């Protein structure tokens, strides 16, 4: 019996194939062109495949019968085999190409075998893999052909073996995975069994099984099936060393009663057909499992039909998907199903012929360009990576970020934590923030000179004062502490320590300043104890100041001796670095030698945008970089390792996104651009001491064509390579933006770094802009560039040392910056958790608004606002600072609203309508509805209110049996309708004979007695109990002087009832019902208002619930509500558990906005909460309330009870459903049910509610029905929509346009 339906389809297997697994390519070869064969076969080496498979070309006579293989063809094959041997590629010959098989079946089998044996002897042991093809014949439908092919194959097999060869001879079989079209059709299982027997087993049983056709086939065909015969059976059985399964996809089976037909029809599943390709990879794994269950010892090779198209385009996306998904199913069968007999996968197509109409290849013929005879397709890029890796790697691991496997969670926010020791940081740079440009002996830097040169910097602004951190460094330390960062990345100004740039004169006041800063950081606890207690000030020794890179200041007279063009600069930089290490290395353990070296070299020496302002056209930039890399190595080597620090370099790399991610030319352009940008500096340090090969080759070629005697890219000596290689402990990465790139091989006679790359950028108008013309909001690039660094540099530890976005108005409500950081940092989290990138920290650029080089103070990157017209330069936190602080506190992205005041770092679908369904076991309930209405609504739960004074009407404690019987009838009717009951104990319906009501302590004992009677009489029908319903509201309705006593008595009654039910009915669940107002911060970016919100929630909802969960009341709670319930005494008296709630019923009425008007947060008068005048209340308060309950009360199972609304407010009710659905599905709140009040069920509201219950959620189809058409939804939120963010960026662009 075949095994069916045990394999999942939704996941992807990452990992490697066994070392013995083989990769092959099948080539139709066509006419043999020996002049072109070398280029064709060289592609095999480029991909790295092990096996090259092709079919023999047979000659035929006029009648179509095969004569043999000509001597000319044999000679050509000899050449091919010799070439393959030189390439270390195994040949595999199929005896008949598909076009020769038909002729073979018409020919004399014995004669064909004799001719084939001569071919075997001709090639000898050059060929160790042979096979016979069965073509595309589907078993029982052409049974005569099956028998002829089996006989022919058996003859060929024995002819090969008799000739004395020890190679492998197999059979190629067309196979499908067959399933029932309609699984409910009577007896369809037997029909599917027969259909499968007519597939692979029809061939395998005679060859490798019983020697006969499958029993199911013999039974079905009876006398119509001729016997194989005893003699043939013995000869045929065992006549295959392996089987190649040619997988054709998934087919549906239906029964048919047609006369003369075997009884079934198999047709390609139309749902799986994509562009004429049967695309059902899951069936391949199913098929392998079934075949190996019956034939466990046969070696299997796998191939398939592949993708056949009329389009020879190199961007063959469908073929990429076909290879990726089918190969992955093979890997699953090996890794998960433990199928070890699968030995090879062969790609079914190599090179398309010119002007092909049935294109199957992974290469395209390009006869118009002799230097590039064949163009690789995207499928060749994929196959190359899979073969070289021998499996699938996570992330964007291939050429130009091309992935080998599926990308996990490519879109949307990914929720997870960062590693426990992850380093959060913010950054500044010396010239941009310090000021004090000519104080305490500091020398002039080239940025001092440039900024004082008229008409260069925006509005002639300078860094003379900047943020005045030279004097206000304690303010910097203060805001760093408020952020909660572990690192502070700052830079040391060269000329503040060495006024003339040399060790001839050391400026002690400069050293003293940095000592004060470092000591202040240590005092405030910038210490990570998880790693040996080292101070993690991420300090930049940024020598690029010489050339005007960010944070660098060096003597202007260095320019006169060549600056970075003079090789002696390496010694001066070493001296500067050593001074820093000697002065601060006992406390600073992380050092960066250079920040953004490409800015120093290209912008300083090629473009002239930064000092020294040279425009050398692709010459001096390379020389400056050459010396800079050597200077980095000098600094690394001079470091005293006894200080136990780490050293790296920070390289700014933009992600080069291929214009067409499936075009190999664009993928190569992406790789080239990234090597020229990042590999230029990283490759010598992190790989082998030398530049990337692509740079060396291209620049040398272009230099020659431009008339240079040598390459414009200098060469390192062997000694220098050894000195440079390995000079790192980590990789510093600055990442801001991505751009689209494509190839541009225009050869300019004027040298240029940009022309050398042979790429060009392409504008994408869909990318959001910023306050900087060069910076586009492209978060996807963060994950891709981190994957690139992982791939190129052996997953070196990476610190993201800068990332941020600019604006031009400095708004404190910088939603656009929050959006930027949320999306970029989340992509970084994906790179860590999903792709395995070794990222150790993240740095927000910048800590505060500062001097942004040529644009002065017009572009603001800060998460703190600085007013540059105020002499004190105060630092004011923006919204992004508060957001970043919460992210650091939570150390990751948590669903929903976990933060104080209902803040979330990435709440999904906020402010948007949301479609979805509730969990399968979701409970729909009603409150105060008669049983007829209950049955009509098809709900499965109901709140049943039990009146205390009706059940026990007299002080003698006897129950009223008439009332008991009425309730039992009521409960039985509900049970007959399969409606569960939730009993609500009517504590507020207190009997009149209890004098003083709940102000009388005797009410506690009498309530417990009432509850016990309810359990006794109704416990067989009711298993969930709400002990108290809205106790806070009830307490508020009492006289002020009685409230505390009533509260204590209610709490005691609840606790004792909870304890009683737990002992009397151990399987019953108990809960509490509460009605609450969500307390929203008046200003979401004001910490005091968020604190006020949190305290107000604790003082209302938490006042009664906190003790039930063992949460101690806060001082503000006590101040607002008076003396707290004496929980400790109750615990002692009653032996109560920590948690006394199994579930909660929550109703959110309105939203109030809370502010704090006092510095004393524990003062009740400091908190003011009020509703805002509006005709309609937003409904997102329910989602935030549910999140508050989740995080405060360990995600207790919660029912949502809707508010009473009018028929005209159907949109409000729909919004209530939507926000509850978001809490359940997006925030993982344990919402177990939804309860609808009686007065809501009328008119259009009832119709809408019933539709939602029927769908168990809100679907698009449901919303489009006529009964929902008139319902509109208004869901507002404090978070901006994408439209608002986009609008902000448009505003920034307009500002830039006007300024320009």
Automatic annotation (TrEMBL):
Its EC number is 3.2.1.21. The keyword Repeat does not apply. Belongs to the glycosyl hydrolase 1 family. This is beta-glucosidase. GO terms for biological process: carbohydrate metabolic process. Keywords: Glycoprotein, Glycosidase, Hydrolase. The keyword Glycosyltransferase does not apply. Pfam families: Glyco_hydro_1. It is an enzyme of class 3 (hydrolase). One of its GO terms (molecular function) is beta-glucosidase activity.
């Amino acid at each position: 019996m075949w095994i069916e339906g045990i394999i999942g389809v939704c996941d992807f297997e990452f990992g490697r194939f066994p070392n013995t697994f083989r990769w092959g390519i099948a080539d139709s070869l066509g006419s043999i062109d020996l002049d072109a064969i070398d280029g064709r076969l060289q592609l095999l080496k480029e991909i790295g495949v092990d096996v090259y498979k092709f079919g023999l070309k047979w000659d035929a006579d006029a009648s179509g019968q095969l004569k043999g293989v000509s001597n000319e063809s044999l000679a050509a094959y000899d050449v091919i085999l010799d070439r393959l041997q030189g390439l270390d590629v195994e040949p595999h010959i199929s005896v008949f190409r598909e076009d020769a098989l038909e002729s073979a079946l018409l020919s004399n089998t014995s004669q064909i075998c004799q001719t084939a044996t001569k071919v075997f002897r001709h090639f000898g042991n050059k060929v160790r893999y042979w096979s016979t093809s069965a073509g595309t014949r589907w078993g029982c439908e052409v049974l005569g052909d099956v028998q002829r092919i089996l006989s022919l194959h058996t003859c060929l097999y024995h002819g090969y073996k008799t000739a004395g060869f020890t190679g492998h001879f197999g059979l190629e079989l067309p196979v499908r995975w067959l399933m029932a079209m309609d699984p409910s059709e009577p007896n369809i299982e037997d029909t599917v069994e027969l259909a499968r027997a007519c597939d692979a087993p029809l061939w395998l049983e005679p060859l490798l099984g019983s020697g006969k056709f499958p029993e199911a086939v013999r039974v079905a065909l009876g006398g119509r099936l001729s016997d194989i015969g005893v003699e043939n059976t013995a000869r045929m059985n065992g006549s295959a060393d392996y089987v190649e399964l040619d997988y054709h996809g998934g087919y549906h089976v239906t029964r048919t009663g047609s006369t003369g037909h075997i009884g079934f029809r198999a047709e390609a599943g139309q749902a799986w057909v994509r562009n004429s390709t049967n695309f059902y990879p899951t069936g391949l794994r199913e098929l392998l499992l079934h075949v190996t269950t019956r034939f466990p010892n046969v070696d299997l090779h796998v191939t398939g039909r592949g993708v056949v198209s009329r389009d020879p385009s190199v961007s063959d996306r469908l073929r990429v998907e076909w290879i990726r998904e089918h190969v992955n199913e093979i890997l699953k069968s090996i890794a998960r199903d433990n199928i070890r007999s699968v030995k090879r996968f062969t790609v079914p197509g190599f090179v398309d012929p010119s002007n092909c109409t049935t294109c199957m290849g992974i290469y395209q013929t390009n006869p118009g360009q002799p230097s590039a005879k064949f163009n690789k397709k995207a499928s060749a890029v994929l196959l190359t990576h899979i073969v070289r890796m021998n499996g699938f790697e996570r992330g964007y691991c291939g050429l130009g970020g091309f992935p080998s496997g599926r990308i996990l969670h490519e879109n949307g926010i990914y929720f997870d934590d960062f590693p426990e020791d992850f380093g959060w940081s913010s950054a500044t740079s010396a010239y941009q923030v310090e000021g004090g440009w000519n104080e305490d002996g500091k020398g002039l830097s080239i940025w001092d000179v440039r900024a004082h040169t008229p008409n260069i910097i925006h509005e002639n602004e300078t860094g003379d004062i900047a943020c005045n951190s030279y004097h206000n460094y304690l303010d910097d330390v203060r805001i760093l502490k408020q952020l909660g960062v572990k690192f502070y990345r700052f830079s040391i100004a060269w000329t503040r320590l060495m006024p003339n740039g040399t060790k001839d004169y050391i400026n002690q006041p400069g050293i003293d300043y940095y000592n004060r800063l470092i000591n202040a950081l240590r005092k405030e606890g910038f210490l990570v104890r998880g790693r040996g207690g080292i101070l993690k000030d991420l300090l930049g020794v940024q020598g690029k100041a010489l050339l005007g890179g960010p944070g660098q200041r060096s003597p202007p007279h260095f320019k006169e001796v060549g600056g970075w063009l003079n090789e002696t600069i390496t010694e001066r930089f070493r001296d500067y670095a050593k001074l820093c290490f000697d002065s601060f290395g006992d406390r600073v353990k992380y050092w960066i030698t250079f920040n953004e070296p490409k800015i120093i070299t290209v912008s300083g020496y090629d473009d002239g945008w930064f000092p020294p302002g040279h425009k050398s056209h692709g010459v001096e930039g390379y020389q400056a970089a050459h010396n800079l890399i050597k200077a980095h190595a000098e600094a690394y080597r001079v470091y005293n390792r006894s200080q136990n620090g780490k050293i790296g370099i920070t390289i700014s790399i933009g992600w080069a996104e291929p214009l067409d991610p499936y075009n190999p030319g664009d993928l190569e352009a992406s790789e080239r651009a990234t090597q020229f940008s990042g590999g230029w500096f990283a490759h010598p340090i992190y790989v082998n001491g030398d530049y990337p090969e692509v740079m060396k080759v291209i620049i040398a070629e272009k230099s020659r064509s431009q008339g240079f005697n040598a390459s414009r890219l200098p060469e390192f000596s062997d000694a220098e390579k050894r000195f440079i290689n390995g000079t790192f402990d980590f990789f510093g990465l600055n990442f801001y933006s991505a751009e689209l790139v494509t190839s541009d091989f225009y050869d300019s006679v004027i040298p240029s770094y940009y022309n050398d790359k042979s790429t060009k950028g392409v504008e994408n108008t869909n990318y959001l802009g910023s306050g900087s013309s060069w910076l586009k909001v492209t978060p996807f690039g963060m994950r891709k560039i981190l994957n690139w660094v992982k791939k190129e540099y052996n997953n070196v530890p990476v610190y993201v040392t800068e990332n941020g976005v600019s604006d031009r108005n400095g708004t404190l409500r910088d939603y656009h910056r929050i959006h930027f950081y949320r999306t970029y940092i989340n992509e970084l989290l994906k790179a860590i958790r999903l792709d395995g990138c070794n990222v150790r920290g993240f740095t927000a650029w910048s800590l505060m608004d500062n001097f942004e080089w040529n644009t002065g103070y017009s572009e603001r990157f800060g998460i703190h606002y600085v007013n540059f017209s105020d002499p004190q330069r105060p630092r004011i936190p923006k919204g992004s600072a508060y957001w970043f602080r919460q992210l650091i506190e939570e150390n990751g992205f948590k669903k929903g609203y976990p933060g104080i005041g209902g803040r979330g770092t990435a709440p999904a679908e906020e402010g948007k309508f949301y479609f979805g369904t509730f969990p399968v076991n979701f409970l729909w309930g009603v409150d105060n509805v008669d049983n007829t209405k209950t049955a009509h609504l098809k709900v499965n739960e109901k709140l049943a209110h039990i009146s205390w004074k009706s059940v026990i009407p007299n002080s003698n404690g006897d129950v009223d049996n008439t009332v008991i019987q009425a309730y039992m009838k009521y409960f039985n009717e509900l049970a007959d309708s399969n409606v569960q009951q939730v009993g609500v104990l009517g504590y507020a319906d207190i009997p009149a004979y209890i004098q003083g009501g709940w102000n009388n302590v005797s009410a506690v004992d009498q309530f417990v007695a009432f509850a016990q009677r309810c359990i006794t009489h109704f416990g067989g029908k009711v298993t969930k109990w709400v002990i108290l319903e809205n106790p806070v509201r009830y307490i508020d309705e009492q006289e002020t002087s009685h409230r505390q006593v009533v509260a204590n008595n209610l709490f005691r009654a609840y606790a004792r009832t909870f304890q009683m039910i737990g002992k009397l009915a151990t399987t019953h669940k108990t809960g509490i019902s509460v009605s609450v107002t969500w307390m929203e911060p008046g200003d979401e970016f004001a910490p005091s208002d968020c604190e006020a919100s949190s305290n107000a929630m604790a003082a209302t909802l938490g006042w009664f619930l906190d003790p039930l969960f063992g949460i101690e009341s806060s001082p503000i709670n006590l101040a607002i509500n008076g003396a707290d319930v004496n929980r400790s005494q109750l615990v002692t008296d009653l032996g109560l558990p920590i948690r006394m709630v199994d579930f909660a019923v929550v109703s959110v009425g309105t939203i109030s906005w809370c502010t704090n008007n006092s510095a004393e947060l524990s003062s009740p008068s400091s908190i003011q909460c009020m509703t805002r005048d509006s005709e309609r209340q937003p409904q997102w308060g329910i989602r935030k309330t549910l999140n508050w309950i989740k995080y405060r009360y360990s995600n207790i199972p919660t029912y949502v009870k809707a508010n009473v609304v009018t028929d005209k407010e159907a949109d409000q009710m729909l919004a209530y459903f939507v926000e509850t659905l978001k809490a359940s599905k997006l925030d993982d709140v344990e919402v177990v049910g939804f309860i609808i009040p009686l007065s809501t069920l009328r008119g259009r509201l009832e119709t809408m509610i019933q539709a939602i219950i029927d769908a168990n959620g809100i679907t698009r189809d449901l919303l489009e029905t006529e009964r929902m058409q008139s319902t509109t939804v208004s869901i507002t939120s404090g978070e901006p929509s994408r439209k608002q963010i986009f609008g902000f960026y448009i505003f920034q662009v307009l500002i830039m346009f006007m300024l320009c």
